Amino acid sequence: MNKNANAKLMLSAAMVIFGTLGVFTRNIDVTSGELALYRAVLASLLIGAYLVLFKKGSFSFKGAGGELPLLLASGVAMGINWILLFQAYRYTTISAATLSYYFAPVIVTVASPLLFHERLTAKQIICFVMSTLGLVLIIGIGGGEGTANITGILFGLGAAVFYATVILLNKFIKNVAGIQRTLWQLLAAVVTLLPYVLYSSGINLGNLDGIGWACLLTVGLFHTGITYCLYFSALKDLTGQQAAILSYIDPLVAVCISVLLLGEPMTVMQLIGGTLILGFTLWNEKE
Q1: What span, in angstroms and rounded, lies between the C-alpha atoms of 229 and 50?
Q2: What b/e string do you get for 247-259 counting C-beta neighbours within 10 Å, with b at 16 or more?
Q3: In terms of Cα–Cα distance, which of 24, 36, 19 is closest to 227?
Q4: Gap between the Cα atoms of 117 and 130, Å rounded
Q5: By the number of CB atoms within 10 A of the CB, which of 100, 164, 225, 249 ranks highest?
Q6: 249 with 19: CB under 8 angstroms?
Q7: What is the rounded distance in angstroms from the CA atom of residue 79 to the CA atom of residue 33?
Q8: What is the spatial distance between Cα 159 and Cα 33, in angstroms, rounded to a whole number?
Q9: pTM for the full model?
Q10: Sorting pLDDT into bands at 50, 70 and 90, what band is 144?
């Protein structure tokens, strides 16, 4: 199997795993802030061990250089992004939370002309308008959706804003490799989330039963640590367009699990809205 085919397989596997995240978080009886903290701690330990064992480059303050503030800022944004996403899973269906979260590329498209002086094309404007329409349909404005459902979708949209922030900050980071960059971000998330958790909810790991512990370890080690290693190992051998297309496996898996396996409700309007967001975002990313 050549490098490109192997990379496609690894990225596809990573996206399938990411798509199952919501199912596992539902069984972890701690606050969203705690869950984000534990996820960052477990993933940091695993990725750190991976870098040491496989000698994947140096990890030091010197290696980060002048980009350390950007790395730390993106780590803080990633931690907040996780909290909001986990809150979205608690308030609404996995499909609605995930589709709202995938509004992030649209936010990046709109912000890029302001930050990087990129020209906003007619195609990008169309994609923005149609994806926004899709988001409106998912929220169900005027459609009688429950307050909790709308709250969850808004949490998902908030997570999208901070995920877009992570993407935009990473565009300024040029000299730190992907996996080392992720470790810096995870450590920054730990430093940020720890005082927040201690002040807001405290440590409540004693609330977890056997299933809760199994799900927590799976989310931290498997969904984050192992999957991030797969993700960044694959990216270097794929074009941007190939990576963008394969990334849509994540929301498709999440929607299928939500509707087909968990039996969570999804209205026709939400289905149309999700199709608009994913379809026009994908079209925007194609060359």
Answers
A1: 8
A2: bbbbbebbbebbb
A3: 19
A4: 23
A5: 100
A6: yes
A7: 8
A8: 13
A9: 0.87
A10: very low
